[in-house]
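Quick one, tokens below:
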């Protein structure tokens, strides 16, 4: 090798070492930054020209990264569902000893009726039974408010999620364009790639997303159901929030580029992400539980209905428990939407409204004497009370679409409803735990591949320093040899 070639090779090595050293410093500075991936200076050599840095690459794994995206979306969905169910369960079924659940309230009412039946002439016990009935109706009213409040909250969170998605897509557009331009120009775009991955990671919290890399580093985004989120340009994600919810309210769908991705009319529904979880909570889980509450209310009205005690064959009418549709009875085994929020104790038997508590024993709560059971006005009459108690244990049909017990006693149905909401909550809780564990492991696996290890960086820095020192020594030696050669020629 000629001295000139040796000098050129050493100079090239010095330049490469400088870039390597800069890359290592960059890694050390970004080690603690979220989403930063380790940068690698890729070396190559040309015959007679020495080594040079061919490119700056990222330490990355598309497979592991996709695993993290999937786990993030699944975890976000389950967390959204669990948080909503937790609020409902805490307010309506937790700790039956506190009489919060419909089952506990029904058992309390049955007990109060039994005590009253044992002493039907005791006004205090009559008042206690009516008070227990009012508590029962109030619990259903409050449970309905809680369920609809959770639906309102889910709807509001969906609006926030949609706003976040649109904002992230705008950011993605800018960074993606920078990557394409930089790739075409041959620039280092690794920091932009980190930014783009970070944006997609945040996006995966809101909606299940898949990224496809194309020519010149360009990327396209799709939901986990196949709807385009980004392809050259960001697609518009739209949603109109519903501010007030009642049991009969149907929330609006989320649209991506005009395609519905939530709701009953969606042909490509979202499978994961916070948005999918909120939609399921708002449109499915809460609606099912509300239907169960409505069936409990209908069962109460049916159980405590009054029948004609004459030969006139008048239709049955609501008794102790009534609703705005009285004197008609709710349709049998059919959900009357919102009934749990409307049920109340008849004013005629409520002392707080000037009513007579003894009507619970005697009948004619509806005001029509044809429905009077205690026709003799006997203070010790208990047959009607025993009938009501028996009615609470009697089997009756319930709407099979509620996922509760299709037939059985009112208390049985209420118990199945409590079991259903508890099972939904526990399942969501288990899913949250599993998905979070999966996310932690997927993130750790990705970090092992793309993260910065300070020990490795410092070790590499020492190697680069030794290479730099050796190259400097070569240049110094060649310089001395050239000077000696020039001196010899001059003499």
């Amino acid at each position: 090798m000629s001295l000139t070639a040796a000098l050129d090779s050493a100079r090239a090595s010095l330049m490469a070492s400088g870039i390597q050293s800069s890359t290592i410093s960059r890694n050390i500075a970004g080690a603690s930054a979220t989403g930063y991936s380790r940068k690698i200076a890729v070396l190559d050599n040309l015959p007679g020209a020495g080594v040079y840095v061919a490119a700056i690459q990222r330490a990355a794994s598309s497979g592991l990264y996709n695993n993290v995206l999937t786990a993030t979306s699944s975890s976000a969905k389950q967390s959204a569902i669990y948080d909503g169910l937790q609020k409902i369960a805490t307010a309506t079924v937790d700790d039956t000893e506190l009489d919060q659940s419909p089952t506990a309230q029904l058992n309390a009412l049955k007990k109060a009726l039994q005590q009253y039946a044992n002493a039907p002439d005791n006004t205090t016990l009559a008042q206690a039974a009516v008070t227990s009935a009012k508590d029962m109706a109030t619990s259903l009213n409050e449970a309905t408010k809680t369920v609809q409040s959770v639906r309102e909250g889910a709807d509001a969170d969906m609006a926030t999620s949609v706003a976040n998605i649109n904002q992230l897509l705008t950011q993605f557009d800018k960074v993606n364009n920078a990557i394409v331009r930089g790739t075409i120009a041959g620039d280092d775009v690794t920091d932009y790639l980190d930014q783009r991955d970070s944006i997609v990671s945040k996006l995966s919290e809101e909606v299940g997303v898949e990224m496809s890399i194309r020519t010149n580093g360009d990327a396209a985004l799709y939901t986990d159901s196949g709807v385009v989120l980004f392809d050259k340009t960001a697609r518009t994600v739209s949603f109109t929030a519903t501010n007030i919810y009642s049991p009969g309210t149907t929330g609006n769908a989320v649209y991506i580029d005009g395609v519905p991705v939530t709701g009953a009319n969606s042909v490509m529904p979202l499978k994961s992400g916070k948005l999918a979880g909120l939609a399921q909570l708002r449109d499915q889980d809460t609606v099912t539980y509300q239907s169960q509450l409505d069936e409990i209310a209908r069962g109460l009205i049916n159980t405590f209905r009054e029948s004609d005690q004459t030969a006139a064959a008048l239709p049955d009418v609501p008794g102790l428990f009534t609703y705005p549709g009285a004197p008609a009875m709710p349709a049998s085994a059919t959900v009357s939407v919102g009934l749990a929020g409307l049920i109340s104790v008849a004013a005629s038997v409520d002392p707080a409204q000037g009513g007579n508590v003894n009507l619970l024993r005697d009948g004619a709560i509806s005001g029509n004497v044809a429905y009077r059971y205690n026709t003799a006005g006997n203070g010790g009459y208990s047959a009607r009370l025993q009938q009501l108690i028996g009615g609470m244990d009697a089997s009756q049909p319930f709407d099979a679409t509620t996922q509760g017990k299709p037939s059985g006693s009112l208390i049985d149905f209420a118990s199945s409803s409590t079991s259903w909401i508890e099972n939904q909550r526990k399942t969501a809780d288990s899913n949250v735990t599993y998905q979070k564990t999966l996310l932690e492991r997927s993130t750790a696996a990705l970090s092992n591949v793309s993260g910065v290890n300070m020990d490795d960086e410092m070790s590499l820095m020492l190697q680069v320093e030794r290479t730099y020192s050796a190259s400097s020594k070569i240049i110094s030696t060649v310089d001395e040899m050239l000077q000696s050669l020039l001196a010899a020629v001059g003499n």
